[in-house]
Fold:
Amino acid sequence: MAAETLLKSNKQIKYTSYRNILYHRFFVGLLLFIVLSLVFTVLFNVFTGSSPRTDFHEPVNLDPSSVPVLQLRRDLPKSQSRLSNCTYWECFNVYRCGRGGHDKITIYIYPLKDYQTENRRPISQFSKEFYIILDTIRHSKYYTPNPEEACILVPSIDTLNQNSFSSEYVGRALQALQYWNNGENHLIFNMLPGKAPNYDSVVTLNTGKAIIAGGGFDTWSFRYGFDVSIPVYSHIAEKIESSQPKQKNYMIISTQLNIPQNYLEQLQNIASSSNDLLLLDQCKSESSGIDYTKRCEYTTGRIFNYPEIMKEGMFCLVIRSARLTQAVLMDILASQCIPIVVADSVVMPFNSHVDWNKLSLSLPEDNVKNLLKIVHSVSNERRGELYWQLRWAYDRYFASIEKITLTTLEIINENLFPLAARMYEDWNMPEHLYGPVNPLFLPVTAAKAPGFTAVILTYDRVDSLFALVRKLVRTPSLAKILVVWNNQRKQPPPSSEWPVTNKPLKIIRTKENKLSNRFFPYDEIDTECQLTIDDDIIMLTPDELEFGFDVWREFPDRIVGFPSRLHVWDNTTNSWRYHSEWTNQISMVLTGAAFHHKIWSWYYTHKMPAEIRRWVDDNFNCEDIAMNFLVANVTRKPPIKVTPRKKFKCPECTNTEMLSADARHMSQRSACVDRFAKIYGHMALKPVEFRADPLQYRETSSGIPHVYPDIGAL
Amino acid sequence: MNFTAVSQCIFIIHFYEMQAKKRYIILIATCIILLYGFYTVLNFKSELVQRSRRDQLPTFASFEDLSEAPSLLQRQPRSTSKPCRMETCFDFTKCGDDPKIYVYPTEGPVSASYRKVLSVIRESRYATRDPNEACLYIPAVDTLDADPLSPEHVPDVASRLSRLPYWKNGRNHLIFNLYAGTWPDYAENALGFDPGDAILARASASETVFREGFDISLPLFHKEHPEKGGQPPSATANTFPAPRKHLLAFKGKRYVHGIGSETRNSLWHLHDGNNLILVTTCRHGKSWKDLRDERCDEDNREYDKFDYEQLLSNSTFCLVARGRRLGSYRFLEALAAGCVPVLLSNGWRLPFDERIDWRRAVIWADERLLLQVPELVRSVSPERVLALRQQTQLLWEQYFSSIEKIVFTTIEIILERISAHRTSRQREALIWNASPGALGTLVCYGDSRAHLPLGVAAPPAPRAPQAPPSPLPAPSVPLTAPPPTSSGTYTALLYVQATSPALHKLLANIANSEFCEKIVLVWDSERAAPSLKSLSRVAGDTREPLPVLVIDATTHYPGEGVSARWKPLWAVPTAAVFSLDGDAPLLAEELDFAFKVWQNFPERIVGYPARSHFWDEAKGAWGYSSKWGGAYSMVLPGAALVHRATLALYEASAPALRHAVRRARNCEDILLNCLVAHLTRRPPLKLAQRRRYKAAHHRYKSPWSDPEHFVQRQSCLNTFATAWGYMPLMRSVLRLDPILFKDPVSTLRKKYRKMELVAS
Structure:
């Protein structure tokens, strides 16, 4: 025995020492490798440092403190003036794009340079906002450090404010850019265009074919589908919190300081005759400077704090002034005060994608006198819609320079890759208010001719399955039977044993015994409508199935089925409960026998919260409840129950002898209802008090034969 | 001994091994941690430095810059005159609350298409005969075809336009144009006349000539395009994933010379005969044989293999490439066939793109990237294809299937601009792009989706904080009260021609109903109207008495007859309107059940008396039947719930239809059914078993027992079908019953017990 042990341990020694050596060698090798590669990299860098490789690109350095100075001489050529009729099709070079994949643009930023005039004066002031714009692009998914593969190029010269750069020199600097090429595929940012006295609505700069992301466009200067209209950023807005007072104390507030004289007079007239308009101006203080955190009422001089006062207003005015768009618009949006925009022919920020009709009222300039009348005619429902939209849209698109920049890039991206574009609902309909989009929105009665496909989920109850198949094929509109064989351990019976049918029958063997297999969108289902049916539901007559299909045709986006259930709120446990008694209401139909559109199977497999699908497969239960939740949540419509209650061998009572198991099953289903409601964040199911019957159901025949005679016998 | 030594040895080795392993691991781990720490500190430091630098930077604009007021300096005059916009070229002052359109009397030659356009407008509710009342003018000068080489071309348009009495350089005029320019360059601006300030509704408009927000882009339609009605959507099957045979199809001419040839000439590169069918022919015009190139014969051979119509209905995507002009007929043809258009027409403004969101229905390709088109269409997900195809059908049906729809859409866009200008109110974007569409929604009715029967209403937006009660003097012009939203109650709108015991019974039942908020009783009888202010409830009911408003139709709406029954909508405070005949024998339970069901289907007519229509082969006309077999197509609003917005739309239906009803003093219920079916494309809903909806024993002779009455209804049905250009009614085979209706359970369990006793 000892010898045996010895032998064993000897073996072990050999083995362990061998392992030991292996470890040793491995780690020494690793260490050596790391050291060597470090040395190699250092050496490589040292020797090649003088000549940087051309295929490697350093991301742009945005540190404004250490940039090379570049002096622009007066005799440098100027860039060409802006082409006012540019379109995406003519001025934009698409061949540069598409290298970042077919749904993403690539953007290059020119290296920062300190451009100076001959007298060593900077040609433009580099501002914090412009720095953030560049920094956002630099860290966005669109950025590329390689100018050769860039689709859009952004000059790093600050042109945000017309007052703080020299158009003449910036034009020269643009022309001097390496890839300028008359501005093709370049993007210029600007927020305050135009100078006194004309205040052009587009930046006064020779930009050639460059795209301009600008504030204050009018419909003449804006090149549709090419330029992007952006808001004028306000740093006050960023500090306004989302909290709201319980009560808005003023109907309309005007806090703008630069209202043109003629409109101001009209507003003063309104304010003097009505309490609905609070007209505020700057406070006349002795000190020379204006206090921008205070506003005073015109007539009484009452002092209000700005911007806090705006939260007290239901509507806030923003009026065109020197420029068409005003920074105060952002303050108004952030304060959740509905803006009334008075600016004829303005192009609102992000107008191509953001629907301003859902965010504001627009008032024509010559209608300012009717301000009160128009505000009063806005219904409470519209006010509610606008009010809830404001902060949501503000937070998504306008809340900071980063968001403004990213929204701009996204709009350009969508113009270039329309297939990657998000739909109107994604841009403008907050899902928490309006719910998801119904994929079946065309109002139609589905055609009868294609019929429906019966999908039978079965495990091993062959007799009952065959009985069901024999029964099903007598339904005229049945197009095909699909047997989903969920038993991996047993072969389905050979084709010779199957009942002879005049309809195609196909067997699908699954890889795993999962309940969700019944809702897989099999390619074999080539009709719109599928009937999911349990292999033991043999009590439905062909008339009943045919009628069920006819009902589904009229409500093709709903689940139409036979056995129904209800959810109820249990006050004692504070949770949702599942109810299967005789009730006057229903909110679910069981998919033991139900028609639904194939798209819902696809939704079930690909779009339903994964948590629910996992729960269903883990617990081997509640797949029908999950389906009812899914459809009700997307369509916001209840299911339809067909014909009176039958003695269904209900799925809940598969084990009638074991009452305890039955009770457990029921409590599990209650738990499902409660859990799914929590996952969706609300109770998606809706109870209804009606069911669908044939027109002549239970009618004493008046000579006219019934269309569905065999219905409703228990 | 030996054994212990060995085991000791093992232990040591073990220990050593452990140590060695650990040592290396610790060493490497420390290295990694150190490196990581070093880089984070470095990063953090650089970020701190960056942030502080960033904060040192000046802001882009000072408060003074941001609140710059218009300068007192004189603005320098502009040299160029700007293209028209509504604010600058349209006179809004001529347009009142109900803007009207004046069509000039026809003089001189007019093509068949333009004649249809004019007649559609003249028969519409927008038309007026008084030019002074009008806000928009439509010249009867045929401007559709400005191509002098075309046989339809009408010469001398410019001078005829300028001779129009109200022309004034085209101000407030609307001009239709389908074809501009001529061979060889097809210049878009070559209209042959100067539109001046007139709004130009034109096909094939390009982005560069289009006056944004002023002009309207039209689709190009055939001469044979139906004036009214039009073919219903043909591809309504929503099979998922789309089972069509081909992925992308194109069959058309290719130009061996001249404008528009580049794209079409290269299409054969993409043709693979199976998935991508892109076939062209050189055969067109007179001289193609002289100009043909080496590919022509091969192209023609492939071309003849495929049938155009078949391709449209068997392909998922259809290429819509520019022809000589930007637009082409195939755009509408593809739309009608449910083939998703893939546009190869750079710069084209799609029809009505001011309001129609084409991203939902088409795919934009780029002529410059022609060879990427196959990849582009392959990358569209099946779910998107499903949505795109449904949208093509929706848009085709709502805006394009007839000349009437195209013209009305043009007019509605202009009217909406006027409304936006006068009242800051326009339809929501989604209303334009979903069912029932803008032609089925009045621009002046409501300003929120909550006011409309939009299938499923959005969850109610939480109330905005209340505005303070206005202490100011009432606004000078009375405001139109905002329409009510669907809430938990309905208004009973009774049409009464005589008092009868049945009426008293009905009133008592309404007072008993759980959800009735108000009764509006339209009294249409020579006798004096009863003075009823409220209805008391039955004993034990603690609710307030039910308010009643009696409106005497003979004084309020003289001569209207039965058309007056839905006129007093101003008195209806709820979205749900229970339209009742004065002698309808409905129980309180039936009223409540109907309302409960209607809440789920606010866009449909939901009620008890059903009727059906059928095609009478012998007479070659539509027949009307009150005996149904297994299906019905009408639910009479003698006892049915309808949305208030639908009734408002009834009042705005075509004048010819309303005249027919007024003349016949009958058929208003059939018209309402046709209208709702036309708008929603859904059948009405019949409830429970009740057949009879007239009290059995009348003291006076009811017009219903009159056979004449029946014949009249038959002829109404045919009048309406002609007016719409098709028969809008749809059939249904189902009725809706309460859940436990006639089920073998104790009646005590049932909520609607008395309903079961109603004889059918």
Summary: Residues 467-479 of chain B have pLDDT under 50 and may be disordered. Residues 2-56 of chain B form the longest helix (55 residues). The first strand of chain B starts at residue 101 and ends at 103. Chain B has four domains: 1-55, 86-218, 246-404, 490-692+701-751.
